[in-house]
Write a structure and sequence with these properties.
about 325 residues; five-stranded parallel beta sheet; HAD_sf; alpha/beta; 3 domains; Acid sugar phosphatase; 18 strands; Rossmann fold; HAD-SF_hydro_IIA; single chain
Length: about 325
Amino acid sequence: MSPPASGRLADAYDLVIFDLDGVIYLSDKAVAGAVGAVKRLHDEGRAIAYATNNASRRAAEVADLLTGLGVPATAGEVLTSAAAAAQRLADRLEPGARVLVVGADALRQEVAERGLTPVSSADDQPVAVVQGYGREVGWVILAEAALAVRAGALWIATNTDRTLPSPRGPLPGNGSLVAVLRTALDREPDEVIGKPEPVLFEEAVKRDAAARPIVVGDRLDTDIEGAVRAGLDSLLVLTGVSQPRDLVAAPAHQRPTYVATDLAGLFEDVETLAIGAEGTGWRVTDGKLDGHGDPVAALRTICAAAWDGTDVSALTGATDEAGAVLRTLGL
């Protein structure tokens, strides 16, 4: 999609698809400003969806968590990789088929509700293994999964996020656990369901019959790449995993349409949020950043230069203010 020329960002789209971890909350605590921003969208009657790779909660549990934080939400607005993976298995397998579940109880329940039989041992001869994040996942169940896959079971991963954001810093995510089996089996999963695959975004768009949706996320390699694959505009917020240095170095398939500090960006002017927008107050010339104003506006200018082929690896500040901005951004 081509970005609109002017107006509030939220006004330019008919559906806002939010990632959760690192965007709305970190673990079980709200990201600063997120509750007010999402509530404001609800109060304005705007369509909202939540698309999460985290397979440890069911849609109703996610909605309850959001409501407990003060965010108006219903289970119908939530799409999880656990539900999508279970549905994919149900579409591919015979009713009652045995599936070895690696992950939280939420994933096991999703599998059972679709008429499949969850098991926890390779001795049960499962025809598929589904792997999602679970805090209690350990060597025993991973060993059973390895045996089942080696015996010919289909292997589906809910996602391959290497880390999960938390108030204490990034923690191992499902991708790290998938890497254990990848190393042991010397092969990739047969299918990955969650972002950056476009499945969750496509389902959200279908549910709301949206003509112009936007994805809001904190990860370049899942949220933003998923949006690019789905042909959707995207807003990267700097409240979670991906940071300015990651953004500057992002390959074409992981570049967002817009960048903002946090969800307050949804109510800012489109023309100030887009990468490469004019009038940012900043410029990159001869290896130096010059200008004044908002550090994130400087980041957009730096990204535009880098993505256009300018070498910004040794960028310095032309003024004390510019130097301070570079330090603030970690560049």
